[in-house]
Fold this sequence. Notes:
There is one protein chain. With 342 residues, the chain is α/β, with parallel strands linked by helices. The protein is built from 15 helices and nine strands. Helix 12 (259-276) packs across helix 13 (286-296).
Amino acid sequence: xxxxxxxxxxxxxxxxxxxxxxxxxxxxxxxxxxxxxxxxxxxxxxxxxxxxxxxxxxxxxxxxxxxxxxxxxxxxxxxxxxxxxxxxxxxxxxxxxxxxxxxxxxxxxxxxxxxxxxxxxxxxxxxxxxxxxxxxxxxxxxxxxxxxxxxxxxxxxxxxxxxxxxxxxxxxxxxxxxxxxxxxxxxxxxxxxxxxxxxxxxxxxxxxxxxxxxxxxxxxxxxxxxxxxxxxxxxxxxxxxxxxxxxxxxxxxxxxxxxxxxxxxxxxxxxxxxxxxxxxxxxxxxxxxxxxxxxxxxxxxxxxxxxxxxxxxxxxxxxxxxxxxxxxxxxxxxxxxxxxxx
Length: 342
């Protein structure tokens, strides 16, 4: 149950903005359009392997964004705006729906897509919510577009704390200045650092001619592929309300779904967020840590995992977290070696 004193947060995601910005951050200016990502279906049998590899490397971790948003309070509005019939957008649906994100459909009416439609629809919804939900304390806008400057300023004038999240290199400095707090996507706890690649050499290779006058052969697929990225395990379905297997309409990804492992990763993510808001070595109150874990995954419960109390659960994770029970309050902090391993 939400406590009356809790901060109440509205999260609004300009989906195309963040996905396109991330792809072009890693693969060069206009790479999204050049590679035809909007209509690219990586599951197709004839999909270009090089483009698929670049797209996989640029996958946006929306779980990390939602986790960070939940650190400000209870998420009472959680929306993402896009045309969800587009293959690249549809591939995120399971991840977003598992976190209770409201997928707002924007229908494409022009050849340029839904870019302006997302800006206007998101801004209209935020303004409506500001007046319809007077207890809304925080507005979090996931975008870097300067079109949202007026929205951020209006939200602040109406007494809300405004947070922006955007991709470095594609974020308006004026938008960042208009917010109370702004975070780069790469700086969010849990985001795996990825090195930007050089622009794809396919076009240049095709233009080169051999001495005989014929086109030089295209480079092998291996030359175009981005090195595999180690991504953290995503909690895509509730795992803590029970310990038995559940049946879902869609097949589960072939990942480790051991509830104990997922609980440990949830704890580490919560501690990283807590440390990100203060000193890296700062001791955190265990009650605040549990609250953060429940905000990130409301289905978390230590009892189905075999622990009588949350303190017992924390004590069992001594390899990743250090517990201090000597003072009047129980305190916890992440071990440095665990921070590097997750």
